[in-house]
Amino acid sequence: MTANGRLDGTVALITGASSGIGEATARALAAEGATVVAAARRKDRLDALVADIADQGGTAHALEVDVTDQPAAAAAVDGVAAEHGRLDIVVNNAGVMLNGPIEGAPLDEWERMVDLNIKGLLYVAHAAVPHLLRAAEGEPRGVADLVNISSVAGRVARLGSGVYNLTKHGVGAFSESLRQEITERHVRVALIEPGAVATELASHQRAEIQAAFRKRFADREIMQATDIAETIAFVVTRPRRMAVNEVLIRPTEQQG
Fold first, then answer.
1. Which CATH number fits domain 11-249: 3.40.50.40, 3.90.280.10, 3.40.50.720, 3.40.120.10?
2. Is 164 annotated in the active site?
3. CA triplet 149, 36, 26: central angle to 5 degrees?
4. Rounded CA separation 98/94 (Å)
5. Which site among 23, 106, 201, 206 is 20 to 30 Å from 164 CA-CA?
């Protein structure tokens, strides 16, 4: 844990925390003093993460949940706030990328992306906003944070990623509208848009799509999950007077 403890006394919920950016963010926020609730479907990985954070002197809890199930997502968010007495930070990280041509695409891939990248994010945000507004009214910070993880795909539409582009453009539009709605009540809404990161995200795709991804970045150094986690930690530890609304982060060698 850092000497600063800039998030001491806060509770942070992170979805998609069993690997990649979510796992790294759980570690980063715990190191800043937050009580972290790591949420995902893979309970075994969450348990290992929680144990490792505890070994490092942090505080974390595992929460098994499928955020595409609206009642389950709402119950999970409300349960965190009830158990810990507050909810100060939510990182909406759970997502899936299933790229490929639109023509002849398996419809179940589109449905999975819409269900998780859009609907799951909305379910968590809808349940979290009342708790974040309450947390922002008092100690220890007088401010709360909702961080939505998007992608460069939310800025730039590319051949072969049409529906993934659709979902991430939607996350951006929703985040900006919500920001305007609640920012004056000191709930900050941040949109994080990473480029290529070394995580499991690309591995969920069909074999031929994975091969194309590997070829595209074969001779380029891409980012690590810790790079994005450090950015998220920066965003949520800013003073109350300052809101970082949007961060686009590409590997140095990534052009588009």
1. 3.40.50.720
2. yes
3. 50
4. 14
5. 23
